[in-house]
Every structure is written in structure tokens, then in C-alpha cells.
Fold this sequence. Notes:
- The protein is about 45% helix and about 15% strand.
- By secondary structure, the protein is of the alpha/beta class.
Amino acid sequence: MIRWLKSLYHFVVAVASAIYFRFPGSKLTVIGVTGTDGKTTTTTLIYEILKAAGYKTSMITSFWVQKYLREAVDHGDTHMVLEVTSHALSQSRVLGVKFAVGVLTNITHEHLDWHKTYDNYVASKMKLLLAARTAVVNRDEAELFNKIAPLLRKKTMVTYGIHRQAQITRGSFPFKTALSGEFNQYNCLAAIAASTVVNIPKLKILRAVKNFSGVSGRMEVVVSKPYTVIVDFAHTPNAITQALKAVRVQTKGRLIHVFGSAGLRDMLMRLFSQKKIIEQKI
Length: 282
């Protein structure tokens, strides 16, 4: 009952706000980014690429989507990059937003306190791709790709990847980045793919990616001497695995990892995260 009431509440607010603010998303090129990991970095990087290309662009991850879309339109913006959570999709919080591009970074264990099953979680993420004119997906997520590709057969789809054949790769876009870790290589490729869809010139994309220094709180070095301290948002099993792999290759001595997990949000996540750390023997 509580779950149903929450969904109904957000649906009503989404409809009311879209009408009140006069459907501002229809006047913007909206790029939505979803996925378990990498959403914030990918969203921010797309925003920086669009800005560097000379477009008036906004970026938000807020509940009051329509209000900020209207402010962006009134400000003269032409583009908007939205970080879209599975909760926002399942609860209709982005109802009325016309997405030009939908980006999916990956889908791993997370938010099962709300979605209950992995299939429900995937279905929520798919709402963004199905709503967008063009879907941008990670080709290296083989199992997930094989699961969702048939559902996107009527869509324009752009793929990116490192280890599998894809449309956007390090070969087709030989970018340089200051961001560490393979997971950030994927974030860059996702941002590049989305930027190509909205016709940003290749040289401007490559320059913006090279100049992007990262997001505060994401693999951020806060102390460098006498030892290095890094702060990162990683809290899902996959995100922790990828973060530790990236840091391990940069660490000559002992690596100490301190992490937490929201108590009642997804109780299984803590166990899976601990298991991943033990398995890696870092």
C-alpha cells in the first residue's frame, strides 16, 4: 500500500508540474542518463562537453524537474542533461519530459528494497531508453545488452564499449582523460556517444573530455602526503569492485578501504559489497 501511494503521489505531482510549467522539456534537447553506477560522472561530462561546444546547457538531478526545466528555457538554454534514477522512472517523476537521448551506463545490484527484483529494476531503467528517440547502451555489458536489445529493435541505438565491437570505442574516438580506472573509460565513452547523437563536433568532444577533471566526491584525492586519501561515492558491489581495482594499481603499499551502506535502503547490498571485497583480497 505504501509503495502504491508513493507512486501515485509522484505521478500526480509529475502531471501537475508538467502542466503548470507548460511542458518546458519540449523546448529543450534533453539527454537523460540512467544506470546503477557512473550516472553522475557521465551526466556531468556530457554537460561539460555541451558547454565547451558553445551550447547553453543546464544539468539537474532534482525532484522538481519541471520547475528547473522551465527555468532553463526562460534562461535561454537549448540543452538539458538529466541524471535519471530508477525511482524517478518507476514513480513517473519525469513524466512529460521529451528525451532526445537516453543513456544507460550499466545495471547491477541496487535499490532492490524498492524494486524487489532485478527484472523490475531493469524494467524501470528501460523506461528511459524506450521514451528517448535514441538509446545509448554499453555493448560490453553482454548479458544485459542481450536482454534489452530485442526491446530496442525499433529504436535508433548507439553502442559504446572497450572489449566488444561497438560504434563508439577508443579506436573511433581516441580520447585522453585525467580520470582513473576502467569504469571512467566507460563513463567517457558513454558521454562521447551521447554527444555524437546531438551532433557535437569530434574535436570539441575530445578537447572537453581531456579537460574534464572529474566530479567532487568521485575518486577525489583529498590528501596526497604522507599518504594518499581518496573519497569516492562507490557503495554498490560493482562500484566498490571497480574503484578498488583502479586504486590498487596506483598503490605500492597497503590499501585500506572504509565503506558504509545505507541501513534500510537495501540490506543485501552490504553483504554483497563485503563479499566482493573479500573475493578480491585487496
